[in-house]
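WARN retry 2 of 3 for item q-0093 after timeout on previous attempt; input resubmitted unchanged.
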Amino acid sequence: MRSSVLSCTRFQRRPRGFEMTRVLRSVLFAAVASTALGLAAPVLAQATSHKLDVTVDQPACITRPQPACTAELALLAARDEAEGWAVTAAFEAFIAADPDLAARDRWMERYEAWAAVATVDGIKERIIPVRAEHLARKGDFAGAYRELGLDRAQPDALAEPSVLILDEARAGRIRDTLPRIERLVESDSRDDLRLEILEIALARAPHDADVVAGGIKDRFSRRMAQALQAGARGDQAIGRSIDEWARGARANQTSPFDDADTARRESWDTFLRGAVAANNLDAFRFGITSRPAFDTAADAEGASKLLRILMREGRADWIRVLGPALQLPAGESVSVDEDIGSMRALPIGKLVGVAAAAEATGSARGAVVDTAVEMLIGRGAIAEARDLFVSAGRLDELNRVTFDQERIGVVFETLWRAIVGNGPKQTVEALAARITSPGAKDYMARVERLTARMQEIAAGNKGEEPADDEWAIMLDVAIASGDPVLMTKIAAAMKDPGLRSTAFVQVTRNVWERAAR
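OK item q-0093 returned
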């Protein structure tokens, strides 16, 4: 997920399909259960720890859960979480994710009303970037800049404008961002931001690209702008130019790199990103064959960035072109975890296509396939995720490796919870029979025990309070089942108000997402 106006406070999550968000999982692992949940009659919740009015019929919601009431149950529980983080997390999740845009405005109004009277440290400062991000999502960038104090003659020195400027560029308002850069961004950062906007312009508003490039002043940044535009055009003459420039770049101090080879590689990476931005596959092929292979430790970052872009956009054919050039030395690997969240929105066919293209990526293959598996789970395509895990050989790999020391073990845990929750039983048993990894078998047995306990809790037989990680597994399985009554009952049974609130947020988001699919 890219950064946002609220980059330091909004949810930052790597999708784990129906697995809990990292926020919920960390909370479940860390918090200590402290207050009981009573399933009482319809209530108007009065302020206890926080002044927050919530109207919800709890028994009716648990019997027939709908997002409108599970969201209120999240706030009802959050009201009793002493530090206030649960209230902020719930409101901010609903403001960002409610599919009803008018409802997002209402969530924002309620959040502001609570923040006005809340005694939570820092809440009045926190609400400012939340409101700004909300306005930006609606396309009201003037309002967002105003909220952050960036419309004044002397802009707020503590406000960070770059992310908002990039959001505005991605919304297609390329020319509007240029005077903002000049006025709001420190001089030594302006050209870096213009380069990012040039890349956006090549993808979304190519008619504005020359205007953006014309504003770049630094000699090295101008060179990178030329490489971006050459990649977009497919200008093959750039190859000679890059080589000649790289050899002399250090001599005339127009490159920040220590050697010509690094300058050359960086220039070609920029050329390749330009080709990607302009959707010019022929130029991308030319750039891959002209650039030195990605075969040094210094290449890992550039290779990772390119691969992530192609994965996010579902460009299987492009991954097949890039794959053979990925020749990183032993001990080095690409990283596909950062800024990959939007891949979850791809159609199922594109996710499967990315996984198929991973065959060309050598040692990166497992990471690409595993990420596609996680994204399929996130889209509710559990059968496709299961079939891919098997057909791509990841099940065989699971049986070969040390379960708790490899990334594949974490992916399998996510997949197994989804498979058990989704069923049917004969499918679960058939796959289980093929697994020989001792660590995986131990985990499967644990999930089986907790699934039985989940059913007991849903039937009203809770017994001793489960441990935090046990709640995490049970809620994952319940959500994977697709049964809103089951998942709501499990969330309602959590004793700690913070955990309960975050679980209801997850249930609400899941029901919204299922409706959208």
